[in-house]
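Batch 3, record 17
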Amino acid sequence: MTYDTVVIGAGLAGLTAALRLADEGGRVLVVAKGVGSTHLAPATIDVLGFDGGPVESPAQELSRFGEAHPQHPYASLSIDLIAASIEWLKTRLPAFGYRGGLEENFVLPTAVGAVKRSAVVPETMAAGDLRAGGRFLFVGLGLKDFFPAYLADNLGHVSADSAVSARAIELETSPGGEADVSSVGFARRFEQSTFRNAVVRGLAGQVERDERVGFPAVLGLQDAGKVWRELEEKLERPVFEVATLPPSVSGIRLFEAMTAAVRKAGGRILIGQTVTGAEASNGRVEAVVVQAAARPTTYRAGSFVLASGGFASGGVQLDSYGKLREAVFDLAVSHAEDGPRFLPDYLDEQPLDRVGVLVDNGLRPTDGDGRPLYENLHAAGATLAGAVPWREASGNGVSLASGYAAAAAILESDS
Amino acid sequence: MIEPVRDSLDHCVKCTICETFCPFSQVTPLFPGPKFVGPQAERYRGAGVSPDASVDYCSGCGICTQVCPQGVKIAEINSQARAQLWEERGIPLRNQLIARPSVLGRLGTPVSPLANWALQNKALRLLAHRLLGIHRRAPLPRFAGRSFQRWARRHRSPISRRRVVYFHGCGVNYYEPAVGEMVVGVLEHNGYYVQIPPQDCCGLPLQSNGNFEAARAYVRRLVANLAPYAREGVPIVVNSTSCGLMLKREAHEILGVEDDDLRAVSEATYDFCEFLLLMHERGELRTDFRPLPQTVPYHAPCQQRGHGIGKPALDLLALIPDLRVIELDADCCGIAGTYGLKKEKYEISMAVGERLFRDVRESGANLAACDSETCRWQIEHGAGVHAVHPVELLFRGYGLDAPAPAGVSAR
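Prediction for the assembled complex:
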């Protein structure tokens, strides 16, 4: 089959690139080994939340951060471009009601009562912002791995010097009489008015006048905005969602919204197929090969986006001989110097944390001398070298901006 | 091959992505979900009896395997576990019966008026519900009263240097011979000499119902019939997506059949739409379509997605002028071959299909398209909208349904 662009990977980076290109009329194929990061991480866009200490304003820190980390993706992505990617997301997915920007980070509570800084958050999470202090009530539903008392207590310790006070309440919901309902199971129930009404009844008379009410982020799958607005209306209090442990319902919403948009724009999505190799000639990638049932299938395209992820997704692999490689194009990876592969302390910065593909300003993977290897191959997301998203709170920020930039580079080379 | 499937569970990182997609665990607590029943429970299987029976509520749709980011063969593990379970407990008569479509077809076809009357008769269906456990409202197909094989024996395909073998499966043979005639018509319109060797069931329903031994016997017999063509380099075209997947992958991967005939047949087997789109890529497909001004929602069946070929029907149907095709987002229709026929599973199957039925109805179209026969029957039953194989739209698009003008042969 022949496409204008083949995107490898269906995380936020790959889907962003695919959607932008499909919106511009390109024939796009997204091929992915499976579903990945969207289902594990929340739908917040964390651009830069931590750099030796908390970052309050990504806009103020990004250029210095890029200079200090010349191999970080942010070193080759301008602030204007990162801002443009955020504006694009806000406009393209209006149902999420994304709020915020690069000027100031939100400070949101996590499910364990730590705090996380996010530049842009869905409207359903915005009222959880702890910066202005105030009183917070966290509601438990019997969802496993979400303990509101633990959350509230920890939050008291973390933000001891701010004016945050938090308490917890546990509702008896046991939806459907099941013993073990997952976050997705609760999200489906929140789409039923009987369940929403039962939750509202359970909270009647229990919420103080000045409290904001936090739920685990399970307020519906298809139409979370509607569920959230209805709860705010009926409880007459600001309501917000707290990101949960995986599976992440807010991330699932993002995946569903973006894949539906890609399909609607005429793109094709092929999930469950591993790209096993590529064909290249004259400095161009001509095709990628997918192992379909019974025989390999070749997909030709004018340009390719590599958004296959890092170690966790198998985009970068470490074999039993200790050799590191990028899995599809066998690209050399950076930060792979000889030496110990692992440090003993779990929280140490690990030698392999920053491993990934090095790119030029058009996000094209480069050889050892900084020259692009293929003129029509662009890399995005966790495939890129240099970022440590769990340390920097930069996860979806790098993915969104680099996916957006990869599409921009392709559109530019086409014009 | 059994061991590599089982070994893949070591790649499970318990991310639960499969659980979020499973259409069946969403609607029933009787199926705890693919991860629990698969990679997790599998560690308790092996020597000794199966630890629990919930794996029987897995439909085998395979969506879990497709979405797994780590390459765990979840659905395949569960199919094998189901077979082990039924080996221990003995397969119920009902499951033996509904898993043999070619036997039922041979019995029902000569007496089709009576058989069809019986299948629609409320009292008899209630009896079958109570005695056999076949749900009284489940969508059972009607016998066509003539077999496709009989038509094929009389049909003379115009000789051409380009040759193709058609594996039509039981659905076409006993229930929808017209679909088979359209497949042949479209292939001949594109210059193919179509050969239709005698053939029997591929064994897929037996596999789904846990009777691996009988399934292996069926598939071995089938590939022995088809292998000589494959070895001559003749492509084998299949319009039933689940039977096609059996030949391409499942006989090897799930049933563990290691067989030169199967290998040859696998590599030569193409889904009908896949085959036509590959022709189109080579510039060989005729595109003399007349306009079909209508809107058709399209559902890609789960087993179709198991082919890993994308949705070629969408690209083919896009060649027909004025035909507007809506790609449906719902994952599964719920029938899963014989799953939704069963008394204890019918309601589950209908609940799974609800979103698809709603989307089909809301499209406002009076016709839907879907590649798999049992899924089409389920869509018609659940949505009340007539459902056709994409070949029917191509056949009409080519004008092959209209009587040929005098002196001109349409085929």
